[in-house]
Amino acid sequence: MAVIPATNVTRVRGFEWWLLVMLAVIGYMAIQSITNESYNESWDNIIPGFKVTLYLTVGAFLVAMPLGLFIGMGRLSGNRFINTVAQVYIEFIRGMPMLVWLFVVAFILTRDIADMLGIKTRDIGMAWRGGAALCLFYAAFIAEVFRAGIQSVDPGQVEAAKAVGLGRYRTTRHIVLPQALRNSLPALGNDFIALMKDTSLVSVLAVGEITYEARIYLGSSFRIRESYFILAVLYVSLTLVLSLGLQLWERRLAIPGRVEE
């Protein structure tokens, strides 16, 4: 008879209680937003920035993923030059606050690149500058995630692949990377959620995401409570949806442990 271990049952029950509490909090906030006229007005003025927030989050992460993988593999390279460049990039980015890096990319690097390409700096929109800053910043953290994931793969499997005649490229593609990605999934999910929340910093560049829209509405209506309440509802809801999606994906990839009696 197949029996599910007690540890799994406890974990699932804990997750259900956590989910129940989160849904209750979000439900209360949503009811306030719908039934109260001032909250409803705040919602109508802030929600247009939701699309920009999603575009920044997904676009920056889709670029940061392959870039981070490339840098992470460079960090493990036997070539001293490549290894040094990758390590310097990672340590440089990790040693700088996100807000400072945002200003560096938006007002310094963008101007230098525009001069090299012979185009006007003002032709590069602030949304593009903010998205570039996000993907370059998180590529450094994703690189470390991939590095740890690659190093977690059993070296014996690499040796076995070489023994059956697989080259370095095929071994990396078919043996190492699939396992490294699976091992890195929880950390990558956390980085994705963190990136989503850091899109709020792009509001300092006057990019029309939800934090910027909330600040603009607050400045014209002076409704502090309503503006930040709606903003909190949106970010908590996004975080919850992403967390649930990540856990469901992890469960699909995981092999459920069962004991046969």
List the helices and strands and how they pair.
Elements: E1 2-3, H1 6-35, H2 37-46, H3 50-75, H4 80-94, H5 98-117, H6 126-151, H7 155-163, H8 168-198, H9 210-221, H10 224-253, E2 259-260
Antiparallel strand pairs: 1-2
Helix pairs in contact: 1-2, 1-10, 2-10, 3-4, 3-6, 4-6, 5-6, 6-8, 7-8, 8-10, 9-10
Description:
- By secondary structure, the chain is mainly alpha-helical.
- It has a single domain, classed as MetI-like (MetI-like fold).
- The protein is built from ten helices and two strands, in the order βααααααααααβ.
- It has helices at residues 6-35, 37-46, 50-75, 80-94, 98-117, 126-151, 155-163, 168-198, 210-221, 224-253; strands spanning 2-3, 259-260.
- A two-stranded antiparallel ribbon has the order 1-2.
- Helix 1 crosses helix 2.
Fraction of residues in helices?
over 70%
Q: What general form does the structure show?
A: flat
Low-confidence stretches: 1-14, 255-261
Radius of gyration: 23 Å
Number of helices: 10
Distance between the termini: 5 Å
